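Async update (no meeting this week)

Hi team, since we skipped the sync, here's where things stand on the single-chain job. The sequence we agreed to prioritize is pasted below, unchanged from the tracker. I ran it this morning and attached the output directly underneath so nobody has to dig for it. Comments welcome in thread, and please keep replies under the output.
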Amino acid sequence: MRYKINKVFVAGHRGMVGSAIKRALSNNSNIEIITATKDALDLTNQEKVMSFFKNNEIDQVYLAAAKVGGIYANSTYPADFIYINLMIQNNIINSAYKTGIKKLLFLGSSCIYPKESKQPIKEDFLLSGKLENTNEPYAIAKIAGIKLCQSINKQYSSEGFDYRSVMPTNLYGSGDNYNLEDSHVIPALIRKFHEAKKNNQHNVEVWGSGNPRREFLHVDDMADACIHIMNLDKNYYEKIISKSISHINVGYGEDITIKELANLIKKIIGYEGKIIFDSKKPDGTMKKLLDTSLLAKTGWLPQINLEDGLIKTYNHFINDKNYRN
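Output:
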């Protein structure tokens, strides 16, 4: 890193992204990582979050804490998704500002962009159209987080506040959620094919037509990109972003159909049955590929290709005591 940091708070350190950031930061001996479990700190409680920040001399914050889930979870619990995410991010960002923490990185989601965005999706497409209705509450919360960081930078620029935002594409990897009711597509498919192989099932049902295209980035690449962006020189960072857009896309740069993804996971796991696509279930956005040219301009590129990343992820899954079968 370019400069010494004493204490870094990783919010959401037990989640997939937060744990990856924590692992990556632990390689730097100049950093003391600060964490807090849900039992120790309720991030939706404003008073407790403020007290936590006042009692810890924090230099930087990586805000990876969030309530996340796939299409089913977003459709079933929309009130939870907007309320919990707004509370978590507002409490952390505001407490960081109030206690004088100058550097913070907020992690959003590519679902912030309009459903009918041109492809690939550029950062300045934000708020240019209607959102995908299946995850609109979650997306609105994330947009609010971006704008809060941007507004703090604008209002308190003379005081040196530097709050940045990154918008990741679909992530996967170690520490993912494999609960079929609220997981994303890759962990859901891994668990389905694994259990189908174990139980000698003749077919596996996959939601939707299989035609939507999605981009996937391994979480270890995401963590590396977050640290890279956080440590970009402030003057350089301000030059590459516009006054109205303060976030940077983080993606793999290529997409794949859900049908192709399902067949790739099927091959990796060694399942020999049939895949049935249930077209009565929602597809969501048909294509969502991020334009990552701005990030590439800073010198960062992903290192883990999809097949290698999926093999690595499946190996983590079969060794996870919570899902070992």
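Quick observations from my side:
The CA atoms of residues 187 and 302 lie 20 Å apart.
The mean pLDDT is 93.
Reply here if anything looks off.
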